[in-house]
Amino acid sequence: MSSLYNENDYRWIKELMLYPETLFRNLHDMEDTSRVTVPDDPIEKVIFQDRAKQAIRKIAQNKGHMLMVGKPGTGKSMLANMFRHLLDQSLGDYIRPKDSIAAYPGKDYNHVRFAYADPERLEAYIDGVREQIESARNSVEDFSLEGQIAPVKKAKKVLLWAAVISAAAGVLLPQAFILTGICGIGAIFMFIQENNGRVQEKIQREAQGGKSINLKHIADMVPEVLYDPRKETNLMVHVSEPSSTNMKGGFRHDPYQSGNLHTPVHKRTYLGAHAKAPIIYIDELKTLVRTRYMASLLEIMQNKEYILEGGRNTGSGAADRSENCLKADNIIIACCNHDTLQHLQEEGDGAFLSRIEDKGKIIQMEGAVPETAEHVRQVAQYVKQEICNLEKEFQAAWGEVMEKEGHEGVRRRSEQIFGRKLPGDYTLTVREFSRTAVAEIVKELRCRSADRKLSCMLRPINGIIKTAEFDAIVENAPLVEPRHIRKALKDHLSLEGAVSKDIIEHRKDLKKYITSMTDSIGYVVSLAVIHSGASGRMFGQPLPIHCQITAGGSDIITAPGKTGDIAKAAAQNVRASIKRVLRKVGAPYAGYEMHIEYIQVHGGVEGDSASVAMDVGLISDYIQQPVNQKYGITGSLTGEIILAVGGVTEKVRSIMDTDLTMEGACIPWQNKYDIEPLLVNMEYEYIQRDEVPAIRIFRTEGKEDPFDICFCKTKYNAYKILMGLSREEVEARMMERSSRDFAFVKQMARRKQDRQAPELNKG
Fold first, then answer.
1. Are residue 596 and residue 711 in the same domain, yes or no?
2. CATH number, domain with residue 100
3. DSSP 292
4. S-S: 526 plus which of 12, 472, 543, 585, CB 3.0-4.6 Å?
5. How far apart are CA 234 and CA 227, in angstroms?
6. Model pLDDT, residue 1
7. Per mean pLDDT, which range of 234-238, 580-584, 679-683 is the poorest?
8. Which of 645, 538, 528, 661 is nearest to 598 (CA)?
9. Longest dimension (CA), the chain
10. Positive/negative CA dihedral, 683, 452, 55, 329
């Protein structure tokens, strides 16, 4: 039989082994990151997003809107901040607001008017008004009733003199005593009146509070400054959850609404982002949809002004509104994921997207970029940037200790933190990354993507870089090395990674138990993967499968459990592939019931990457040939061809742990480039399993613990690796089994007819 592989195929596999050399050649100008420079342009600090950076510069030139669509961690927030920085340096003096916004009383208690004025002139005007009010409050004359008291005082004196004179005259004329009594009573009455006047005067003076009067009704008419550009200089405001109150503004609640204590509406007014910020950054556009603010935003983007209205249904502020409009000529920067973009396309026939494109652009963030020399250089730059950021964090946290106590004080205090003795020459200073460590970061980005690309989800990488730094510092290593990166990767597991790790630990024992208890007929180790939505990382894991095929049953295939639609379709495809082989070799078809069991997979299975494993398991059971349990397999089966699947790098990496006792894996030929990152910082060699090319990776130093990765084009290549049988041998044994089953089915049918014949004759 002619080989499916030619000389070019073997040469391509050998060329894969040149990848580490190519990677290090792309890093040839550095022995470590000390020679890497960080660009001064802040936008160039964002790596991999060249298309987005070019778009941002054009949008900044035209002061347009911008919507960035992409996965979390690809740099959307960083680019938004860089956009603000770029505008601030270039056009900040022109687009930054120059006028203050003042609120005046409106036509009644529920209305307010707004005015834009020069900050200094407005401040001088308001200060002048307040000085006049204060002067009026304190310039009142002393309160006095002396004018009213003086006549009473004179009358009192006259009556007293009259009483004295009449009393003297009474000695000669007794009738004069009557006048004395009347004058005395009158004098007493006048004395009482004088005292009442003095009391009233004292009460009024005390009530004035130090020669002042209450001018609240006049003070309430003074304008209120709601925005002063000299104090609020931020060019961009960050809105995490857009709503009417934080975007437009509103009116505060006034608990004192009776008597003369109520607060005027213009003093209860506050402004939102539209009136105060030239640039509004909406971090997650999904919140805009959830809070139902989209309609208001569309209207404001169209009209560039809005009326401020009360936001409450009841209470003070519900009926408040402005008589004139507030200006709102904002630049909108928004970020969202792809699921939100789909909703925006349906919302109002894409009205928001239309307004963005009218004065700006929708930017598609890169999820992965090709691994080129430039992108590898950018990875080194990114690592250097994180080292610089960590150095600043060290200075902020330990700078004062370093200044007062030196390195010895830092070491002593660090020993208390870590709970162990640190090296005597321990210093809390950042370590540069060696070239091999940078290559390990590139390797990790390759493992998180496919098709020879680097993942652009960099936020999870930050923690790995910092953890590797801390490990190198505690170890007091001169440089961060690949071992520090690998250790950091084990420490930084997402929720899905922790679950995957637990599953792998469980399946180590499960696989050993199955291998020891069975003859390995119908059992095959497939490879699965779990995707982490947070980090973008994939976590591979072994997936044991047991297959059975029985003659004479219903001609169906069953895969019980939580099996997705794609996995069910893959099982049907496997059944069709087996029937096709039987027809091809001319074997009689007896009808078969095929059963596939994903062993202890309680969370369900989806995808077609296990279809070739199902086929191997069914054929193994059909021809009663054991499967090598020390090899895993993945691939999508179409007829007899194995097609590419996703997550191959992580799938293979998951079974390379020596504790799992696996010795190799069969992967689709089209996934050959996904093996390149596994060769970085490892020993390896080219081998051949019969006609199937393979790469042998040595998992421990000294070329120990070999692990063979075989590149299969068809399922017959997998049969040869896993069952040791050639295509001719498999087809011959399938023909033999089919003939036996067909004869058995015919014999059973004949017996059934023989049993039914006497009953028919008797009837």
1. yes
2. 3.40.50.300
3. T
4. 543
5. 12
6. 46
7. 580-584
8. 528
9. 176
10. negative
